[in-house]
Amino acid sequence: MRTERNLTRRLDRVFARLDREPERPAHIDVPRMSRHRVVLFTATLAFYLAIVWAVVISSWLVRLDWQVMFFRPYQQWPQIHAFLDYYVVLGQRGPTAVMVAAWLGWRSWRQHTLRPLLTLATSLLLLNITVGAAKLGMGRLGPHYATTIGSNEMGLGGDIFPSGHTANAVVTWGILAYLASSPRARRWLSALSAVTSLGVGLTTVYLGTHWLSDVLLGWAAGLLILLALPWFEPLITKVETALFDLRDRWRARRGRPATEPLVPVTPVALTPRGAAADNPSAREPVSSTRVSRGPVHLAPGPHTARSERTPVTPVGSRRPPHADRHPRGTSQPARPLTGG
């Protein structure tokens, strides 16, 4: 019995979470571009430029890239190769975007707002523009296609720098923390997205598809997008308002009747059940502007109003016979008083 009750309570909680809220909650927190965020954005941008400059001048960072490549981690620990082949999917843009968009779509429907989906779309658009332009502009080759030992492999038509897997993992999973509805959820989701993106970046180094400097630049690129999102919040709000206005106009256009009704509809005052029983004249309010209609026959005889119909009661009682029960209207014998 307790197991069934616990299962019922859990199902009730699940369905309660699936219920749609009647209106948009007023406690939705929209992040602002605070001074602390501006400082973090400036520091991350400086780190981004430092990584690019260190690779361009073939500094110690490029030598470290070659040392890690010659170490060949996939040969040192081959037992985890199969697992990491699947784990790296958490950084692919297609599967991760579908998973996160499904969750944010449910949140948008439940909260009566398009902000979660519009924020995700904005972050992915920024990711494609900034990271894609950097990849094509620097043209660095990956470890598997390197030509000269010790060189930075820049400007040779590659598209490996920065790491798209790493940047996508930072943005896609970090957007969940950005849109969290409470500070506690934001902290937990921030830590989870950081660990996930860190693992994806190191996995690409393990598989030999990226240099270590590619991963460092990918982390910085994804973090820059997340830190810059508050600057785009006014634009997101304008787009959301425009889309809702377009939806309302479309609904109004579809909801307009094709032809006017032939008979005008007059409002009828409804009275409580007790008041109708006490005042028979209030049962059927008749309007003086009612349009007369021809007789409508829905049955063998003419249609009658509900108050004119004879109430039909079942013959006999459906309750099982009981020795202590007496019919209504009859006096019941007094029970003897017994002292206890």
Which features would summarize this protein structure in a list?
mainly alpha, about 350 residues, 12 helices, globular, about 0% strand
Describe the structure.
This protein is mainly α and 340 residues long. The chain has helices spanning 2-18, 35-56, 60-71, 73-76, 81-87, 93-111, 115-138, 164-178, 183-207, 212-228, 233-255, 273-278. The longest helix has 25 residues, at 183-207. It starts with a helix and ends in a 62-residue tail after the last helix. The model is unreliable at 257-278 and 280-314 (pLDDT under 50).
Global mean pLDDT = 78
Low-confidence region ranges: 257-278, 280-314
Coarse morphology: globular
Number of helices: 12
| Strand content range | under 5%
- Written as H for each helix and E for each strand, in order along the chain, the element string is HHHHHHHHHHHH
Q: What Rg is obtained from the alpha carbons, in whole angstroms?
A: 36 Å
